[in-house]
Amino acid sequence: MIRFTSVTVSLLLFAGMSAHGETATSAQMKLSETGSRATIAEPANHFTGRVYIDPLFSPVAPQRVGAAYVTFVPGARSDWHTHPLGQTLVVTSGTGWVQEWHGERKTVHAGDVIQCPPGVKHWHGATDKTTMVHIAIQESNDKGENVNWLEKVSDEQYLQAGEH
């Protein structure tokens, strides 16, 4: 009797997992191969200098996270901005600078990870002499927003390491 009950329970669990698995696999994995995504030369209304964005993925409901490679040539940087749910940057090559409003400019290198909390005003980009590439990862809020662009980072702010 114990053996029969164990087998019956196992079969019921397997059947339940199979039924659940069919629902979970109704959507299929998506492969986005290297070279299949277009590079975007980012407009000057949010950046200074030459910046190129290579989207990796965009959020597909119910997911809310997107990511992209962002390449900053020497002297290029983002405008001041915030993220409603924060942002994570993973520096993949080169050397760059990151800075919070009223904070000290910090130098970042390949392998460094920067986690910017929600609502923190900041900028990031290449140094004045080196290219920097990072993966930018951010989550969209319920309105689909993932960034709030603010004013330009002036040349004076960019080149000095002090507070702003």
TrEMBL record:
Segments forming domain Cupin type-2: 69-133
Pfam families, per the entry: Cupin_2
Signal as UniProt keyword: yes
Signal sequence range: 1-21
UniProt KW keywords: Signal
UniProt cross-references to CDD domains, sorted A to Z: cupin_HNL-like (cd02233)
Top-level division of the source organism's lineage: Bacteria
Record's protein name: Cupin domain-containing protein
